[in-house]
Amino acid sequence: ASPLSSSADGGTGIEIAGEKPPISAIALSPDAQWLYFAAGTRLYKIPSVGATHAADVKQVGFTSGPERGFATSLAADDQRLYFTTTVDAWVEIFDLNAACDPTAAGVYTCPQVIFGSHPIPLLDTIVVKDGFLSWAKEGNVWRADLSVADPTVDGHFIYSDSLKGFGVTGFAITPHYAYFAENNYIEKGGFAPSDGNGPPHAQLLAREQPWPSSLAADGGNVYWTTSNCDIAYLADSPQ
Q1: How far is CA 224 from CA 41, 183, 190, 231, in A?
Q2: Is 21 in a helix, a strand, or coil?
Q3: Which of 22, 71, 159, 180 is a plausible cystine mate for 189, CB 3.0–4.6 Å?
């Protein structure tokens, strides 16, 4: 559970005043100095070596609404926190270096919602790697270039559609490809601009894989688990 007690959250039932909400996601800062975590509708950080006093636990952000949902997966870079969130079901960015006043001028502006992440994102996986943010929703894996001025709307690409049109159940990213799963299939896709003529076709890598998830790629193989309680892998290089 969170080391901090929560406040009432406006009736959504996610937090109960005076009770410690469960921790729903964690992420390590790139310099390994901080451990970020989500608890209830808020985002916190503690020193990665551990907190020894209550003052070591600092609130750094919150989910959209304000504070409607809770984060189910979390990633971090030097400037921002990225997370999938329940209730509104999209991917959000919280800028750690920008002032954030959710009541300013009566307009809620933080955290920001990422274009192309709604509806139905894959709630247990979000990836920051090689300067890109990657997430999955419905039958696609998307990525956003984090070097652009506004990654919430610019520099977006979409990887291949899932072959059978089912929802993505897991994915892993290499510099040039996304490896992703739908029920019974493991697939590989390239990417195209999200405003182009549609993504290229996915390549089928494996069949008869019941509800594959937890994908990982190491440059020579792609790995996954299935509902048969096994771990499978397949060589696929170069990547």
Answers
A1: 31, 12, 19, 6
A2: coil
A3: 159
Contact in structure between 43 and 61 (CB atoms under 8 Å): yes
pLDDT tens digit sequence for 10-55: 445 566 667 788 899 999 999 999 999 999 888 999 999 988 888 8
Q: For the whole model, what pTM was predicted?
A: 0.85
> Do the strands 58-62 and 221-225 form a parallel or antiparallel pair, or are they unpaired?
unpaired
Two tokens at 186?
A: 């493991």
Give me the DSSP letters along 187-208. EEE-EEETTSS-PPBPEEEEEE
Number of helices followed by number of strands (H, E) in the chain: 1, 20
* 238 contacts: CB under 8 Å, gap ≥ 6: none
Ranges 9-23, 85-99, 129-143, 172-186: which has the least confidence: 9-23
